[in-house]
Specification:
The chain has helices at about 15-20, 25-30, 30-50, 55-75, 85-95, 110-145, 165-190, 210-215, 225-230, 235-260, 290-310, 325-350, 355-360, 370-380, 385-400, 410-415, 430-435, 445-465, and strands spanning about 150-155, 160-165, 195, 220, 270, 350. With about 475 residues, the chain is mainly α. Strand 1 (about 150-155) and strand 2 form a beta hairpin. Helix 6 runs antiparallel to helix 7 (about 165-190). The longest helix is centred in the N-terminal third of the chain and has 37 residues, at about 110-145. The radius of gyration is 30 Å and the shape is elongated. Bound molecules: arginine.
Length: about 475
């Protein structure tokens, strides 16, 4: 039997392999709610414009609700022979209400239908991700407030560089996530135009009202060019790109957690809830959740690459290649959501070892810059010379295998005779971080102020989300 949705000029059914390669229902069933919402908006518009009779439109809308109910309750049977979600829904509608169902597809095509469904799905997903990322930011800000003054080593080249505070470090991720949210918001703003009514590619001769359907579906306006409407997947690319960058941030953070949780670093302990044991080595506490967040960045970045490559050679307008837009996007965004949830759980539970962090902050001559700054400030040395003097002092301390603060005044004066005992005040890590008061610097007072500002901003965001 040929396809009953489009099989008018076909005599035989598709080859089994054709059906397998062609069908998208195995994944686009996820668009069911959006597909039905789009159809309801479309049929209401057709009725208002007198294109379909009011009673037919009412029957279609009622039938669509019934289909939605069946899908929600799990009693709906998806059929691969019907290819995709659009034809599965329409076919079931026909079974429920009869031939009137066939009027629904007036003045539209699966090309604009899938474009609107996918946009709606991506939009819903952006909104959900935004809420989740907000939650992760809040968890980080809570910890940052608690540990605004907790000294840890700051690294460059993964070598101890200068002492910073744990709160400051956590707020760095709050900034990154803020940019991620802003990128998602930008993508959402550009996404929010409605392609419905572009029909197959050229628009339609029916007197449709595209502004009405756009408004009904929460879009800002209809898309302006019918060709672009059915061939554009920028909204998915932009969202996947924002997702990929966000996944990179989470992956970097996950990597730090993995490092911190090693016995060698010993900076933090993860809760039992986010670690696993080894079946052979009883001492192990493996940070699997963090490792998986790091690992999942691979597929999330891959989905962006995959879709860019699908799109790059396509002539206008729709080509079936574009059906390959969905699986990667679903996978990427669902996994990102899982990663955000896992990171939020880990952040809430993480227990820093403040003693070890502080001890590590003082090792590796991390206050050498403070010493050089002191020589500039107190002895009026040019910075380059101060750098040189400090280098010799570090050399002296390192020859004795002690920290800078353990050098005697005589030993220091052997290098630079004008050094006074006041220098010892800047050699401690607490004084070091306290002195970094420049805007954006690591001084605990700064960190507290930044954390407060973020907490205020996030509370506003949360209220807006709750009110929306
Ligand atoms: N399942 C298709 C997709 O996801 C729907 C659009 C089909 N359009 C067509 N002209 N065959 O892209």
């Amino acid at each position: 039997m040929s396809n009953k949705m489009w099989g008018g000029r076909f005599e035989s059914a598709p080859d089994a392999i054709m059906e397998e390669i062609n069908a998208s229902i195995g994944f686009d069933y996820k668009l069911a709610a959006q597909d039905i919402a789009g159809s309801k908006a479309h049929v209401a518009m057709l009725a208002q414009q007198g294109i379909v009779a009011q009673e037919d439109a009412a029957a279609i809308a009622k039938g669509l609700d019934e289909v939605a109910g069946e899908i929600e309750s799990g009693t709906f049977t998806f059929s691969r022979a019907l290819e995709d979600i659009h034809m599965n829904v329409e076919s079931r509608l026909a079974a429920l209400i009869g031939p009137t169902a066939g009027r629904l597809h007036t003045a539209r095509s699966r090309n604009d239908q899938v474009a609107v469904d996918f946009r709606l799905w991506v939009r819903d997903t952006i909104d959900a991700l935004d809420r989740q990322l907000l939650g992760l930011q809040q968890a980080l800000v809570d910890k940052a407030q608690a540990y605004a003054g907790a000294v840890m080593p700051g690294f460059t080249h993964l070598q101890s560089a200068q002492p910073v505070t744990f709160g400051h470090h956590l707020l760095a991720y709050v900034e990154m996530l803020g940019r991620d949210r802003s990128r998602l918001r930008d993508a959402r703003a550009r996404l929010n135009e409605c392609p419905l009514g572009a029909a197959a590619l050229a628009g339609t001769s029916f007197p449709i009202d595209r502004h009405m359907t756009a408004k009904a579906l929460g879009f800002d306006r209809p898309t302006a060019n019918s060709l672009d409407s059915v061939s554009d997947r920028d909204f998915a690319l932009e969202t996947l790109s924002a997702a990929a960058i966000c996944a990179v941030h989470l992956s970097r953070f996950a990597e730090e957690i993995v490092l911190w949780a090693t016995p060698q670093f010993g900076f933090a302990r993860l809760s039992d809830k986010f670690t696993t044991g080894s079946s052979i080595m009883p001492q192990k506490r493996n940070p699997d959740a963090a490792e998986l967040v790091r690992g999942k960045a691979g597929r999330i970045i891959g989905a962006l690459n995959g879709l860019l490559i699908v799109m790059k050679g396509l002539p206008l307008t729709y080509s079936k290649d574009m059906q390959e837009d969905k699986e990667g996007a679903f996978d990427s965004l669902q996994n990102l959501s899982l990663c955000v949830a896992a990171m939020t759980g880990m952040v809430k539970d993480i227990a820093p070892d403040l003693k070890r962090m502080k001890a590590a902050a003082g090792s590796g001559y991390a206050t050498a810059t403070d010493l050089a700054d002191w020589l500039v400030r107190e002895l009026n040395l040019p910075f380059r010379e101060a750098h040189h003097v400090t280098g010799r002092l570090v050399g002296a301390a390192s020859a004795r295998k002690v920290g800078l603060e353990k050098l005697t005044l005589e030993e220091m004066q052997a290098v630079e005779p004008r050094i006074t005992p006041a220098v010892y005040a800047v050699l401690g890590v607490d004084n070091s971080v306290k002195s970094r008061v420049s805007y954006g610097g690591t001084a605990p007072a700064n960190v507290r102020a930044q954390a407060r500002a973020w907490a205020k901003k996030l509370a506003k965001d949360a209220a807006r989300v709750a009110g929306a």
